[in-house]
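Moderator note: this is an archived Q&A kept for reference. The question asked for a predicted structure of one protein chain; the sequence and the answer are reproduced below.
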Amino acid sequence: MSELFGTLLDGAAVRRWTLERGGVRVRVLSYGGIVQSAEVPDRDGRTADVVLGFDGLDGYLAHPEPYFGALVGRYANRIAGGRFSLDGREYRLARNNGPNSLHGGERGFDKRVWEAEPVEHGVRLSRVSPDGEEGFPGRLEISVTYTLGADAALRIAYEAVTDAPTVVNLTNHSYWNLAGSGNAGGHALRIAASRLTPVDGNLIPSGAFDDVSGTRFDFRRPRKAGSGTTTTSPWTRG
């Protein structure tokens, strides 16, 4: 089921699709593939919206930088210096994060209106990223499918096909708060990772793998997300 959510300045319509199953209701926008809301009942049957987002389109247009709930691409995270080499050729990208290219550039996938079609228990978004868009090589056909399973779990499946060598790194940029509101620092968090990739002052990975033991990044045993230990490591920037 879909409804009109808003209209962009160029007249393009943005639609909101609603997925419902097992007491869970998820809303996805055709603009940026944004997961706008996820209403989930707790153990007592009380429903809360556990994903951060805005009630109207204007909120997303006015505050694009947090990428709330967005489908990020063509390349998620940072590309150092806004350039990369592939098969002996250098490609220069839009620099939208200091010296770097972040989340696909100035107008990444999060700022595009996607074609949408219903699928069983979900919606499929698709678009074609032309050769040279934001500096990336190759024509890229992308489809992203959002579904609610029989277990009421939200699943996002990505598929991308290119006609030339390129780089692709797609993800969803949702922020979750299982309490529905307030500070999420009290959430119990477990991450099954013994090492991490440290970053420099521009948040670019160094290529090393550091042990998390004794640092605030050690979540191998569940503890509060907002907790941490004192460390003198130079890479303790969140």
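Archived answer notes: Residues 185-238 form one domain.
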